[in-house]
Amino acid sequence: MTDETWWQLLLAFGFGLAGSVLPLANAEAFIVASVATGVLGPVPVGVLLGAGQGVGKMLVFQGIRQGRRQLVRRRPRREPAPIRPGTWRARWARLVEWSIALVEHPRWGPVGLFLSGSLSVPPNYLTTVVAATTRLNFAVFAVFLTAGFMARYVVIALAAAGVFEHVR
Fold first, then answer.
1. Domain ranges in the chain?
2. Tens digits of residue pLDDT in 13-33
3. Of 4, 29, 31, 153, which is most buried, counting CB atoms within 10 Å of its CB?
4. Residues 6+ apart with CB under 8 A from 155
């Protein structure tokens, strides 16, 4: 590999990292541009973009988790206000409790993280924020969300390269 190739690989990883923290950087556009120029193959671009996205979400996860711990230490505990049944606030509280239980579930939590990374259902940023406020293991979060990102971007890159047009 030449020095120029290493820079391209690093750029793909960095673009994925930037796109996960700042959602303004569009990874799909980067894939199309990379495949169109032909500097890197579709698989390395997809894997490195996915790895960059995963590392970026790990940083967001740890930032939220550590920031929450700092806030909990400083603020004195107080009892939450009672929620009247039938209000929008009660419905929201049930939805939040359900989402936390789903993320912490030993079987469905990893599946949900993989789907969030690969299909963006549920949305990645929301999943990262919810997961960071739960007791979810960081390694489970990191592995399954990153694997989802990698699968997503490799498939998009292969489709952009025209690989699926030849398969019948």
1. 3-75+83-165
2. 999 999 998 878 888 999 999
3. 153
4. 46
